[in-house]
Amino acid sequence: MGNALTIHKRYNEALAAYERAISLDPEDGRLQYNIGMLHWQMERPADAERRLLACHQVGTRSGGEVVAGPGSRDVGKAIEAKEARRSERERDPSDRILR
Asked: What is the CATH number of domain 2-98?
C-alpha cells in the first residue's frame, strides 16, 4: 500500500501506511528502508538517515543483507557529506561557510 501511495506522490498517506505496517513488524528492514527513502523524497534528511540506519541495524542483527535501492546511494552520499561538514566544523568552528 505504501509503495503505491508513494508512486502517486501521496506521501503523507504512504507514511501512515508504512507506520501501520512497521508497528506490526518493527524488525522488517524493507519497511525501515522504504520509510527512509520516503522521508528522503519528502526532503526530511534527518528522518531518512534515522530510518536507513535502523534498516542497517535490523539487517545486521538478523544476519541478513541490508536492503538497497537506486536512491540509497544518494542518501548515503548525503549522510557522508553531512558527516564531513560536521568534522570540518569541529576542526574550525569559526568557519561560517560550514555552518
From this structure: 1.25.40.10
Region of 92 please: left (phi>0), alpha (psi -120 to 50) or beta: beta
Residue 2 grid coordinates: 505504501
The residue type found at 32 is Q
Inform me whether the pLDDT recorded for 39 exceeds 90.
Answer: yes
Residue 43 burial (CB < 10 Å; 0-12/13-18/19+)? exposed
CB 2 within 8 A of CB 34: yes
Q: What is the pTM of this model?
A: 0.61
Report the alpha-carbon angle 16-60-32, nearest 5: 10
Neighbours of 25 (CB within 10 A): 10
